[in-house]
Specification:
Layout lengths: L32 H13 L6 H12 L7 H9 L6 H13 L5 H11 L8 H9 L3 H13 L6 H13 L3 H10 L6 H13 L3 H10 L5 H13 L3 H14 L5 H14 L2 H13 L6 H13 L3 H9 L6 H13 L3 H13 L6 H14 L2 H14 L6 H13 L3 H10 L6 H13 L3 H14 L4 H13 L3 H11 L7 E6 L2 E6 L8 H17 L15 H9 L2 H12 L6 E5 L5 H13 L4 E4 L4 E5 L2 E2 L6
Parallel strand pairs: 3-4
Antiparallel strand pairs: 1-2, 1-3, 4-5, 5-6
């Protein structure tokens, strides 16, 4: 509790100096928690531990620290001040807004009002930030802002636009934005664009962006974020290219966002172009940027570049280690992923839940059943990490792929949370792989009841029935599905463009050449002993028709095109949205041997590196 305070201005008094300098002047602009503790110790030695001015400045340093300090610590500093002024109160509210207990900021504000501590234009933006998406509380504060006469302040108005944007209430944000056009600045425009970006309303973002009287790095970043949010990854990368060429220097948030877009596309040249722009503009590679680069290169199929970025970083946090471990796991490099995890542990670092997603995924990809069981036990018993659905999913996948479907089912029955559809889908896929048709039918029908709008579940179940030769059930399930399954596509980046193919695609401008290359591939593979595996074709049709159906799968069209346009000695890189079928997997292995080409495929399940007739997955996917 603190006492009433007369109207103090938000301007602290000059602090006593140390060798001609104020004691807190030694702090950098964004101090670390350790530096703040050192400054606090110095203030205690100087007898300033109860000085309102000194403690107010210390709270200000806590509010902008590189990492939030514990609420108990900032509260203890605040309680040292006998009669806090608005400067101290504002900075305590700002500390609380960044803390794990932001709701406490409202209690501090209420005490300020009760005890007569004045407010100013800094109080309300800090307080709005603490409300996050609490619309009732923010609306009440908006009323206070009008009552106290701060509604015309641009700093306060920016806070309101940002708050309503966070609440996804753009009608209210628009009202604040429009009601006083003369009280706008660049921050107002940026906050407004960011609100539409969160909703993925790209049209509104672009319109505002080009209407702005001026733009900075935050403006460009908001537009790029909106494009990514809406799934317009290629356009986001094109806008970044324009920014790098003609706009302001990109900030860290922009770089991380566009690297994420490149990673989601899985197209290496796009990601490399972003990395090249970072190097050409001489931008710093922070730990966050390095983590995004590692993730991008891993998801684009170039794990060697991920390694290079990882090993080149002088400082690494747990997120950077996680990105590398998860990247190695996705590429089926289980041994390397587990060795890296051992390096991580030897350094005395503390793993988190994502670390173990990577470790367990590595075990799952390589079929390391005993190691997976051991790591799961270590996670729960030694590191006291509560298993999440992803951890259970990895272990269930590991057991199910190894044929231990009954053990996987028992694990699911012991879970302390309801299994999600992804987990049941994993079990259904295992039933199909291991020809457990009756169990698969039970799980598949349960899965459809849980998530009737997901086409993939119908496809999996119809696949189980097709393998069992139960064609009436196949027709029934596919009729239930309605419009049909999600179309499979494969993409390849070549000649400065992204080329997408669907099964039986005849729209490509070089279709005749692709057909000719497919014919050449088929002849040479037949000579090498290839025979089509049509078990995955979900139709009761003649064998010849089934062979034709698999012949024109999207990945084969992309591979044929890649053989035409990717020069010898370079890998052909293909991204596929669905899991590669067994026959296409066999074909790609044979192509890598017969034509002596390295082929890297990212499908909906994992990475496959095909070389000299074998695949990195060891036929375990």
């Amino acid at each position: 509790m603190f006492l009433p305070c007369p109207t103090h201005e938000d301007q602290p008094r000059r602090l006593p100096s140390v060798a001609g300098r104020a004691p807190l002047s030694f702090l950098p602009s964004i101090p670390s928690p350790r530096q703040i503790l050192q400054a606090h110790a110095l203030l205690i030695l100087l007898g300033l531990a109860r000085s309102r001015s000194a403690m107010g400045h210390l709270l200000a340093a806590c509010a902008i620290s590189s990492f939030p300090l514990p609420t108990s610590y900032t509260r203890a500093i605040f309680n040292q001040i006998e009669i806090p002024n608005v400067f101290a109160c504002n900075n305590f509210i700002r500390c609380l807004a960044r803390s794990a207990a932001p709701a406490e900021a409202a209690a501090v504000y209420r005490r300020m009002r009760r005890q007569g501590v004045p407010t100013n234009n800094y109080t309300f933006p800090f307080l709005l930030h603490s409300f996050l998406e609490d619309l009732p509380a923010g609306s009440q504060l908006h009323a206070h802002i009008f009552k106290l006469g701060h509604h015309g302040d641009v700093f306060v108005r920016n806070g309101l636009v940002h708050f309503y944007g966070l609440c996804r209430l753009m009608s209210c944000a628009r009202k604040v934005f429009d009601e006083m056009p003369q009280r706008r600045d660049l921050v107002t425009w940026n906050a407004f664009i960011a609100g539409y970006a969160r909703l993925g309303q790209v049209g509104a973002c672009e319109k505002l962006f080009w209407e702005m009287p001026q733009r900075d790095a935050v403006s460009w970043s908001a537009l790029i974020m909106g494009l990514v949010q809406a799934g317009s990854m290629e356009k986001a990368l094109a806008v970044f290219g324009e920014m790098a060429a003609h706009g302001p220097l990109p900030n860290e948030a922009t770089i991380v966002t566009v690297l994420s877009a490149a990673a989601q596309l899985g197209l290496l040249e796009r990601g490399r172009a972003v990395h090249a722009a970072v190097q050409a503009l001489n931008l710093p590679v922070s730990v966050n940027v390095a983590t995004a680069l590692i993730d991008m290169y891993a998801k684009c199929g170039c794990i060697s570049s991920s390694r290079a970025v990882f090993e080149g970083m002088p400082q690494r946090d747990v997120f950077l280690w996680n990105a590398m471990i998860c990247g190695l796991a996705a590429h089926g490099l289980a041994g390397e992923a587990l060795q890296l995890f051992e390096r991580f542990m030897d350094l005395g670092l503390a793993p988190n839940s994502i670390t173990f997603v990577g470790v367990l995924n590595a075990c799952s990809r390589a079929g390391l059943v005993e190691e997976g069981r051991r790591q799961f036990s270590a996670m729960t018993e030694l590191h006291k990490i509560e298993p999440e659905m992803e951890h259970y999913g990895c272990l269930v996948d590991l057991l199910a792929r190894a044929g231990l479907v009954q053990e996987a089912l028992e694990l699911v029955s012991r879970m302390d949370k309801a299994p999600d559809p992804v987990l049941w889908g994993t079990l259904l896929g295992a039933c199909k792989t291991h020809k457990l048709f009756d169990l698969g039918a039970q799980i598949g029908n349960r899965l459809i009841d849980l998530e009737p709008s997901h086409d993939g579940h119908f496809v999996l179940l119809s696949g189980v029935y097709a393998m069992a030769g139960r064609w009436e059930e196949v027709r029934r399930v596919r009729q239930q599905m309605g419009a049909g399954k999600v179309a499979g596509w494969s993409a390849i980046e070549a000649e400065g463009k992204v080329h997408r193919f669907v099964a039986g695609d005849r729209e490509h401008e070089r279709w005749a050449e692709i057909q000719e290359k497919l014919g050449e591939m088929e002849r040479r593979l037949m000579e090498a002993g290839y025979r089509p595996d049509v078990a995955g074709v979900l139709h009761d049709i003649a064998e010849e028709e089934k062979e034709m159906a698999v012949r024109e799968h999207s990945e084969r069209l992309a591979m044929a095109f890649g053989m035409m346009v990717v020069e010898e000695g370079r890998a052909i890189r293909i991204v596929k949205n669905l899991r590669v079928c067994g026959d296409c997997h066999d074909v790609t292995k044979m192509v890598s041997a017969v034509f002596r080409r390295e082929i890297i495929v990212r499908d909906g399940s994992r990475f496959h590196h095909f070389n000299a007739g074998s695949c990195s997955c060891g036929d375990f996917w």
